[in-house]
Amino acid sequence: MSASVRRHTLTAASASGLHRLSYLEWGEPTNPRVLVCVHGLTRCARDFDPLALALADRYRVVCPDMPGRGESGWLKNPMEYATPTYVNDAVTLVARLGVDAVDWVGTSMGGLLGMALASLEGTPIRRMVVNEAGPLVAAAALERIGTYVGKAPEFPSIEAAERYIRTISAPFGPHTDAEWRFLTEHVVRPKPDGTYRVHYDPALAVPFNAAAPHQDIDLWPVWGKVRCPTLVIRGALSDLLSRDTVEQMKTSGPRAQAVEIPGVGHAPTLMQPDQIAIVRNFLLAG
Predict the structure, then answer these.
(1) 240-264 tens-digit pLDDT
(2) Please, how many CA atoms are within 13 Å of residue 271, restricted to the half-sphere of its CB?
(3) Please, what CATH class does the domain formed by 6-136+220-284 belong to?
(4) H helices within the chain, ranges in order?
(5) Residue 254: how many other CB atoms lie within 10 Å
(6) Using CB atoms within 10 A of its CB, is residue 196 exposed (0-12), middle (13-18) or buried (19+)?
(7) Is the full-model pTM beyond 0.90?
């Protein structure tokens, strides 16, 4: 991680009390042009290191660890790992940053959160990239994610942890060995005995599984209220975001632009130069 990145924390509130929200900040701290990047369900802020480095010349890039992940605190009530808490945290974060408007990049859960925030009257979101998320979330993908979320396995070595991450994250598509190690190192933590564990609150699974049996999630009413310019990115092999859903996203709500990434499922990591270029070109066009 470049020395130009800074880590900060703030105190956020949910119904059960206060929690710590950690975030990374890249670029000039006085730049009024801010980009907020939010990760997927079991990932963390560090996923956006390559994208943040590529955009820090034009933006103050802010990447939070959502509660229960990364360096942020865990919630007392697991059922609060849900959109209302995340929206509240996002609004608190924007207030801390001292700006009236932000651009947004959200992957999977982060994309759904962006949609929810962008649908609200007076939203701070000016321009948005929704990476592998949409107003109809396929039940098949929810079932696949349910096979590993909250299981929090332990590993005898970093190599074993990487094999696990490569397996559950195979839909991310082809990556170099160095990229897979990067994607592993930031979601596991060493234990005193030399073993490793997945580093997120296993209780994330509680609200996720409370919705079982999983059905498609219909968020079309939310999408219909989004008005900011929006780009939707779909992995061509996605089991979560269908091509038909993307076509409907292009003609409803904000009438999104759309790009499909070949050879990738759920979800493009936005680490590689061609994917970074797609995001950069859309954001800077505004």
Answers:
(1) 999 999 999 999 999 999 999 999 9
(2) 20
(3) alpha beta
(4) 49-55, 83-97, 109-118, 139-146, 158-168, 177-185, 205-210, 220-223, 243-249, 273-284
(5) 23
(6) buried
(7) yes
